[in-house]
Amino acid sequence: MEASSPALAGTSPTASAMQPSSATLSSYGYLQFFWHYQDKSVIMEHYNYTGKLQGDRYRDGLRPEGIAFLVVCLLIVLENAVVLLAIWRNKKFHLPMYYLLGNLTLSDLLAGITYMANIIMSGPKTLQLTPLLWFLREGGVFITLAASVISLLAIAIERHVTMVTMRPYHGAKRGRMLALICASWALAAFLGVLPILGWNCIHRLDQCSTVLPLYAKSYILCCVSVFSAVLLAIVVLYARVFRIVRTNTQRQRLGLSSSMRKGLARKSQKYIALLKTVTIVLGVFIACWLPLFLLLLLDFFCPTRSCRLLFKADYFLGVAMVNSLLNPIIYTLTSKDMRRAILRLLCRPCLMTRDGQVKKIGMPFLECSFSKTEVPSQKLEAGAETTISSGNVVTGPSPIKSLYPKLLKP
């Protein structure tokens, strides 16, 4: 044993010198990993494998449907910019209760901008991109659309918490609003950057999505599952809000006089109108997003090149983008204060008098509404509250105080 020790000792430095250290291997692996992100041939390889290079789509310039989608995106940007500007310029909307509305509007505006950039960089320009730029192009659209969807969940959570705690809006609510906004963007960003951090299918072609050839099918299924869970949570939360309102309204009705019952009935009608608006918003959301969800599920289960429908994914994404186009319209049609603010912003000399009254030409826009029980515009005084529910804004006396008068007495 002693004789062999020197020999081993003599060969040990040579052997260690010939074998690279784990740190060297790790560094080489990272360099190889990021080198693939700069290799333009990766895009060609994946698009050719999935069959997306068949035809002339990636040879011609901007197609007519692409121009139509650009127009839709431009409308999305303009509409949401008007809503944001109306909120910013109107001091009545500078309250924590409007933070979630502004956040949803901002995410829709950014979704329109990122999708415009996506369209401009599509077609023949796709094959000129590096994988890094491709991930940034697709990730930008994904993050902003995810933030829009998750913002709807944040609004539903806020509505539910407000009804369960039976407290009107107050200054301490600012922290909860900001926390919901930060959480929505953090979750959207986390889901959006997973592919660029490694959850992709570069050089693993059999695991690739057909709709998004550099995304792994497992990642696509994960995102569809998350968004489906978000939608289910929104429906459950609003169902609970409706049940709370109905139960407490029935309890209050039993112990009130006839005159107070009439007042409570009016409050109940306002809540029913609010929930109708929620139903409209959720219905629009489902109608816009469900086709894309079903297409992505088909992408997961369908073998490569066997489902021609997957090559029409742009149309399904365009339908999903319509949700961001319709949200601002729903805001204006369900809030008289918001409609008045937009009228004042767009063309005050044309539609309003100097003392702030609406001219006849602007009355059709001001009076249109999904709800017949919308309360008149009024100042936010003590005891007044603005209710936001999935994009709906209704200003009026606090319905919580009406439903729970004894609990909220000072």
From TrEMBL:
Disulfide bonds join C201-C208, C302-C307. One of its GO terms (molecular function) is sphingosine-1-phosphate receptor activity. Its main location: membrane. GO terms for cellular component: plasma membrane. Residues 79-331 form the G-protein coupled receptors family 1 profile domain. It comes from the Eukaryota. Signal peptide: none annotated. The keyword Transmembrane helix applies. Keywords: Cell membrane, Disulfide bond, G-protein coupled receptor, Glycoprotein, Membrane, Receptor, Transducer, Transmembrane, Transmembrane helix. The chain crosses the membrane at residues 67-88, 100-120, 140-157, 178-198, 218-241, 271-295, 315-334. SMART domains: 7TM_GPCR_Srsx. The keyword Disulfide bond applies. Pfam families: 7tm_1. It is a multi-pass membrane protein. It is found in: Cell membrane. Residues 11-20 have a biased composition (Polar residues). SUPFAM superfamilies: Family A G protein-coupled receptor-like (SSF81321). InterPro entries: GPCR_Rhodpsn, GPCR_Rhodpsn_7TM, S1P_rcpt. Residues 1-20 are annotated as: Disordered. Belongs to the G-protein coupled receptor 1 family. This is Sphingosine-1-phosphate receptor 5b. It comes from Hippocampus comes (Tiger tail seahorse).
